[in-house]
């Protein structure tokens, strides 16, 4: 039963782009003056509509599946959840369908079902209570290839963060299929900053950080990135990014880690909540 619900959450994530993302793309279309930029955004919106109406993946690269699990320690389903996620990934590959995207690092052979050593990727957070919440984040290879890590010095600080992000987005150009959403993790360690950056992509487009200072930094970086003129699909325009999301953690006195995860326009996500009596809610 749990695996069935996870399959449906995966299906929802890859076939329907969330309304907040669609709205941001529509607003970008309205702002663009370039004919090429408007043409690219028009085709993106058409692809989204086809995926929704025909219940097929919006993009042929259905990505690597990442799951963020927030599990109540008293949930009766905690012990079986990992197996359910792996089984659901296999079934979704066949039923949705998903493109097989799990390749053995040594042999180069594709597992054929999106499972293998270390995949699907599952991040765990154990909390009090008896409910489980799972976030599903499919991430395509083109945008993932533009992820980056910078180990800045504390003296570089937030100005260094802005310089690093803008320079890296400029270097990536059209590779991540813009307009993008930028997840930025600052603080912690090298690995934690990248995890925070990816988790930041789960926030709704247009939703600023609750911390006023961080929300201001998100806006500053968004403005700087959009001034680059890379535009939709890298062919020029006013909209290179739809949004910037920053998450933070305390850092070591000698370090200022910055993780950057770039998401393409197909900002896919879905959520499910598992009640202790087995009832499941699925939403975006």
Automatic annotation (TrEMBL):
Family statement drawn from the similarity comment of this UniProt entry: Belongs to the class-I fumarase family.
NCBIfam families: PRK06246.1, ttdA_fumA_fumB
Residue stretches making up the Fe-S hydro-lyase tartrate dehydratase alpha-type catalytic domain: 4-270
Keyword entries, A-Z: 4Fe-4S, Iron, Iron-sulfur, Lyase, Metal-binding
InterPro entries per record: Class-I_Fumarase/Tartrate_DH, Fe-S_hydro-lyase_TtdA-typ_cat
GO molecular function annotations of the record: 4 iron, 4 sulfur cluster binding; lyase activity; metal ion binding
Record's protein name: Fumarate hydratase
Pfam families: Fumerase
Keyword Lyase on entry: yes
């Amino acid at each position: 039963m749990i695996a069935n619900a996870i399959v449906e959450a995966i299906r929802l994530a890859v076939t329907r782009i969330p309304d907040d993302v669609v709205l941001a793309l529509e607003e970008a279309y309205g702002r663009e003056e370039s004919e090429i930029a408007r043409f690219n955004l028009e085709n993106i919106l058409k692809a989204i509509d086809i995926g929704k109406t025909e219940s097929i993946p919006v993009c042929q690269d259905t990505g690597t599946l990442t799951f963020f699990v927030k599990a109540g320690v008293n949930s009766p389903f905690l012990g079986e959840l990992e197996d359910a996620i792996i089984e659901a990934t296999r079934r979704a590959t066949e039923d949705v369908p998903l493109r097989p995207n799990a390749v053995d690092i040594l042999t180069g052979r594709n597992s054929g079902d999106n499972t293998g050593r270390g995949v699907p990727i599952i991040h765990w957070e154990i909390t009090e209570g008896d409910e489980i919440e799972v976030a599903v984040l499919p991430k395509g290879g083109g945008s993932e290839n533009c992820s980056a890590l910078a180990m800045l010095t504390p003296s570089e600080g937030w100005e260094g963060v802005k310089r690093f992000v803008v320079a890296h987005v400029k270097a990536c150009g059209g590779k991540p299929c813009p307009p993008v959403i930028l997840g930025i993790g600052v603080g912690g360690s090298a690995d934690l900053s990248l995890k925070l950056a990816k988790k930041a992509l789960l926030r709704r487009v247009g939703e600023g950080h609750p911390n006023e200072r961080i929300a201001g930094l998100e806006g500053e970086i968004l403005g700087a990135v959009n001034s680059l003129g890379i535009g939709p699909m890298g062919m020029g325009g006013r909209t290179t990014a739809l949004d910037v999301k920053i998450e933070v953690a305390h850092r070591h006195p000698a370090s200022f880690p910055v993780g950057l995860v770039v998401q393409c326009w197909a900002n896919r996500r879905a959520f499910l909540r598992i009640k202790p009596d087995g009832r499941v809610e699925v939403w975006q």
